[in-house]
Structure formats: C-alpha cells, structure tokens
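Lab notebook page, bench 4
Experiment: in silico fold of construct C2
Operator: M.H.
Input chain length: 682 residues
Purpose: comparison with the prior construct
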Amino acid sequence: MDPNKIKILAIDDNKDNLTTLKALIRESFPDATVFTANNGAEGLRMAVAKDPDVILLDIIMPGIDGFEVCKTLKTDKSLSEIPIIFLIAKRDDKDSRVKALECGGEAFLSIPIDVTELKAQIIAMVKLKVARREKRAEKENLAKLIKQRTREMRLTHTATLNLLEDIQNENEARKKSEQALKESEERYRSVAQSANDAIITTNSRGIVTDWNKGAEFTFGYTEAEIKGKDLALIIPLEHLINHQNGIQKKTEKRNDSLLIGKTVELTGMHKDGHRFPIELSLAEWESSTGRFFTGIIRDITERKAAQDELQRSRDLLFKLSEQVPGVIYQYRLYPDGSSCFPYSSSGMEKIYEVTPDEVREDATPVFGRLHPDDSKMVSDLIFESARTQERFYCEYRVILPRQGLRWRYSDALPELLEDGSTLWHGIIYDITDRKLEDVKRSHTDRMVNLGEMAAGIAHEINQPLNIISLVTDSVLYETTRTEMIDSIFLKNKSDKIFENITRIRNIIDHIRAFSRTNDDFILSTFDVNTTIENAVSLVAEQFKNHSIRLDLNFGKRLPKLFGNTYKLEQVIINLLSNARDAVLEKKRNAGNYPEMVVAILTYKEKGRIIIEVSDNGIGIPGNMISDVVLPFYTTKDSGKGTGLGLSICYQIIKEMGGSLEITSDVSLGTTITVELDNIKTS
C-alpha cells in the first residue's frame, strides 16, 4: 500500500488539535485523505463509514472517551483490524498507556507531536493493518481449502458406507414402522376407549370390527355383543335399505357416497329399541387386509332439545312482538358512524314503512323517514347515549310515504360491545294520538284559564274604553261650547282615542293568539320577562280582587329564548293559578292568616335561565309531589280543577329542552323552578 494514499481518521474534541494534526499529516503524507471527528460517537460513525487505515484517538472527550471508542472498535469484527494510535498529553503518563493497551491500542504519540515520530508511527500502523488483512485472507483461504478437502473425504467415506448403511436403515425403518404401527394402534385404542362419543369401525361388508366404550354407552351393546355383527343392529328399519345400498356401492368401489368426509344428522336405534338423533362423521381407509370405514357418532338428543327450546323461544318472541303496538328492535352504532338494525320485529313496517330486511345491514332508510326539523335532535341524542351509556328516549316526528306526518316515541337501553360499537335494545311506538290529545288538553286548559281570567281581561279592556269615553265626552262638550274646535285640540283627542283603540286591538290579538292551538305558530326569539309580564297582566285583576300580593323580581339582560312565547305564557298562567288557589285554600283553613303572597323570580345561572314561582300557600304533601305532574291528578277538591295544569306545564317545558322541579312544605308553601337552556331552545 502506498503510504501517501492512505486514509487517516483523527478523533479529538479540540478543534485546534485537529487542525494541527491535519497540517502535520499533510506535511508527511501529501496524498493522504484525512477525516476528523469532534467526539467519540461521531468518530465511531466515521470509522464504520470510511474504513480508515489508521485512527488517531484522543483520550479525554465528552460523552464517550477514547478508551470506550477503542473498546467498541476492537469488539467489531470488521473494524478491529484498524490500528489505533492514542494521543497522550504527557510522556510519563504510564496509567493512560497501560489502559490504552488494555483497550486494544497499538501505539502512542505524546503531545506536542513530533513530526518524525508521527510519520514513523503511521507507516508502521499502515504496515500492521496490511499484515492483518493478509493474515486474515490467508486464514480464510486455508479454511476454504480444509472445508473442501473435508467434503471430498466425507463423500468418499459416505460412498463406501452407503451399501451397509442402506441395509441397516432398511432394517431399522422396518422395525420402527412395525413399532410405530403398534404404538399408533395402541394410541388409537386408548383414545377411542376414553372418548365419550361412539367410535365404530366396520369392514366393507358392514361388519363391526371395533366398538369403543362410548359406543356401548350410546347404543347399549357391549363389544362382545356387537363385534362381528352387522351394523344394521343400530340402524332403524326404514334406514336399513339405504344402509345396504351404501355398503354395496362401497363394495363396487363406487366413490359417489355423500357421507365420506362430512358430518350428517341421522337416527340411531338403542338396544332397548328407542330411537334418538345422532350426528355422524364418516372416514374411509385401507390396509393390507382390505377397506374399512370408521365413524364418530354423537348422541345429540340434548342439543336437539335445546334447539327445539330455542325455536320455541323464538316463536314465542315473534308472537309477543307481533302483539306489541310498535316495533321491538336492536340498533347498533359502529365506531365509524355507520349503523344498522340487527333485529327488528315486523312492526318496523308500520312504524317506518320499511321492512326489517331493508335495515338489517344499514339503518339509512329509517333516518330518511325522520322529520327534517327533528333529524339532528335524534342523532345528537343517539350519540350522547353512546357516549354516556345512559338510557335513550326521545319523542320525534316522521314523514311516511303512506301515513304522512306521525309522532314516534323510542325507549332503549345501550350496551357497549368489545369492538367499541354500542347496541341498543328497545321499543318504538306510535304516539300520534297522544300528541293530538295533548294539543286538545292544552287548548282546553287555555280555555279554562281564559274563563278564569275573564274579569282580568274585562278590566284590561274597560280601562281604554273608559278613556275613549271620557275623551269623546270632552270633544262633545267642546262642540257645545264653541262653534269652532281648535285643530290641535281635536288632533290630541283623536290621537288619544286611536291610542286606546290600538291598545284594545292588541289585547284582543293577544287573547286570540293565546287561545288558538298554536300548531301553525312561527317560532321566534322572545324575552322571558316580557312573556311573564303578559301572563301576569291577564291574572293581575284576579289577584287584586282576592287581595293577593304579586312580587315580581326580574333579572336583567337575560338571554332571549327561541320558541313559542304563548306556550311559556300558558305555563306561567297555570303556575300562577295554582299558586292563587294554594294561598286561598290556606287562608280558608287557617282563619287568621297573614298576607297572601305569590312571587316570581327570574335570573341566569350557568348558562340557563331560571324562573321561580313561589307561594306561601297550603303546600303539597311529600308523597304527592311526584304525582302532581301526571295527567288528571289533582290535589284540589272534586270539581275544582281538571288535573291537567301541571301535566301540561311539565310537557311544554320538556319540549323546550328544560326541566321543572317542585319543592314544597305544607307549612311554608311551594316553589316551582323552571330551568331553560337558551341554546337547546334554539
């Protein structure tokens, strides 16, 4: 190797030292290639990548020091031949020299480096590497030669021993085959005898040759009773001809049997004559003594009974589901958002006008039936139930091709499956008639309220009528007093008349809107406090006549709600009517009763609008609080109330996405709290 064309790797964390080394190497070996590395890790990577002829290695470096770098290089077969020259700061540093030798280093250079010594050391190391490479090549060539000669000798030896070995192998193979056959037969017999199933072997003529304990238990015959006998003993008479035909086909070596390699259900016959269902798996095999058939037979009486019971349960479920006025279903929502109805009763056709088969793999046809205004609500509730694993229940509308607009109610319990999907078990039924009845009841309740508020309404209308009457009298008086009426005077009086006529018209329009069914009412945003003021204006006269004080405390800057303002007004009127009756009842019962007070408080809390209607009336017993929201339930005396008020209030608030809570004490009175979410009502 030409020393001037060598590759040298210098590893030192001191850049100045590396610069000096490169300069010294260039001076002694102008054509040499010099690589440098600033740390041990980089030096190892450079050694692998560049395969240098000599490595100049500093000892003290951050991270991996020179000793660790040397150890790593010497443990790598491909890098161990590279000579390493350690750079030592002091010539008399014996400890570093000893440690460097222990690590596998070949030479040392003291700093400052002598150029002549550097050149001599590098030349010596290059020769050392060349010698190592030549030694390795000679060793590899020698190993190849030894391997080749060994193979030739082995082949010669093998050829010499082949004949004897073949004879010996043949004898051993025959002995092993006989032994293996014997062991196989013993294993087969052991397994067959311990098996619970019947394992029976017959020859090609249908004669039993093997009969295990399971067969004795299954068919009642001992091995001594059945062995050597025809298999027809355990085959019912009606199957005997088919059995004999099958044996004949096998005797003629016709391979068209439908039983071989399959599992079939047949009927077996016990020794005592009773018949029972069996499952047969049949295999065919040959030996030097002929062809045989081995069958594994299992008594499936219990399984068939279980299947029959399952079928009866399915039939019962089908009959019951047919009687349910709706659809019983399973609904599955997969993690990717797709869904289906794995099971649904025939009621699916009436509820959604789709068949169970049409939605068994994909629920899309059902969602296509949802009313556009309710579709998002239903989807949101489904995903919320899947997230929380809480019960799903929802009232919603559907538009069906034949039935048109209908109302549906769904109630289901979720179950989280292993794959992350959710499976609901539930029922959906038609609530259209109930919803229509609710509308009628709500309208009836409004009419009752209007009747009770007649005095207040008359008062509201009488006030502007009195003003109109007074203004008209004033104008007539003025006409009798002078022939020329002042135009400004006349305009002011006319404006006053029209102002009160407009007030009367607004009252009548409000009563007309409140009394209608509101089915065609266009939803809009409205102010809660204004709605309550309108409701109060209709009952204020009643409260005044009964000396009931009304305390109104309205919160400021409440968010607006979106919906039907008249429905909320109906709720407030109902609550005020109940509060009025409660304080009047307590006054009748108590005799000396303090001031009767009904209060309304509105405020905002955690993004929700709160309405509290309180009274200091008779109160509701604790065991009745959960019942007062039920239709037709009333705590009032017979003939005093329809029992629809709180039920309608509860339903209206529920439809608005809110809640209604009742707290009461028979000695202190009642507070009804309505919570409304302005986001949900939107």
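Observations: The chain has a mean pLDDT of 80. The CA atoms of residues 7 and 33 lie 5 Å apart.
Next step: discuss at group meeting.
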